[in-house]
Design goal:
The chain is α+β, with helices and mostly antiparallel strands. It is built from 6 helices and 4 strands. It has 2 domains: 52 residues, Arc Repressor Mutant, subunit A (Orthogonal Bundle), CATH 1.10.10; 82 residues, Alpha-Beta Plaits (2-Layer Sandwich). This is Lrp/AsnC family transcriptional regulator.
Amino acid sequence: MSPAEAAREMELDRFDRQLLNLVQEDAGQTAEQLAGRVALSPSAIQRRLKRLRAQGTIGRDIAVVDPERVGPCTVFIASLTVERERPDLMAAVRRWLLAEPRIQQIYYVTGEADFVVVLSAPDVAAYNALMSRLLAECPGATRFATSVALDVVKRGLTIPIPD
């Protein structure tokens, strides 16, 4: 595929934009439900969603679980500093963070810290155990600072897409 063809494939028309906004609200909507909100047939909706998934615009469909219904859950935001002179140590920390299921989001950032991570744990003791394991298994991780979320005011990963 030529660069021009790839660029055309990635272009989003108003229907694509509407669909992306709607499936970000609720990915479980049927093509029939979406067709009721977008001026397209259910089969056209299905074709567009299939294309958006195939080209990677829609990375995956997930279920958002209410943490209060599945047991104790505290949200922690940790800023993590890594020894920067060693790219191999930075890569090892990235791999460790990616493999840890309690870590929900990872941001490689500018400033004093190298990473900001959002994670959940049942309590402070479980969080401390996780971070102690990180420091023991990743010698490049030199320090971390933690904030505890007292309340979740808003949670989401929606990307607003203008029509």
